[in-house]
Amino acid sequence: MPDAGTYCSHFHRLLNRGVMASPLLIILTLMITGCATTAAPDPEPVVLTPDGTRSAQVLRAEIQSWLGTPHRMGGLSRRGIDCSGLVVVLYDGLFDMRLPRTTRALMRKGRRVEKRNLTAGDLVFFKPDTKFHHVGIYLGQGEFVHASTSYGVMLSRMDNDFWRQCYLTSRRLL
User: Fold this and answer.
1) How far apart are CA 34 and CA 32, in angstroms?
2) Strand pairing class (123-126; 134-140)
3) 90, 89, 62: which is closest to 74 by C-alpha?
4) For the whole prediction, is pTM greater than 0.85?
């Protein structure tokens, strides 16, 4: 028996009354109504890590211990880390993926993904008014984690005026 959100209720009422429907009537009814449900789609596509867990949950849990880590150019530890170093360390530790060390090299990995199709774990790249490119990891719901030169490892929003204006591209590695 279909739920209340199903548009095929007329067809199902006919069948429940014992009315034998011809195959043509069934096909026509399905084509007209589409048998669609009104259930809302998942807001974020589910991306699974190699061990089957959700990348958003894994990332958010791990970055808690990194938040506030100071920025240090070339750094790869909790004493100091830069933006590409954060990506390299997190991907290695969480997803067992060895990635190149520079932001420019990271931009050539994986496949390009449109901003509107971002999922947790995608790399997001920016071109601020400096000579360097910047990279972060998208977490879902408009947030990404990155190592800011001013504030260290932090969460930022993609819709923030600064990041929106200097957004460059995104890459999917998972």
Assistant:
1) 6
2) antiparallel
3) 89
4) no
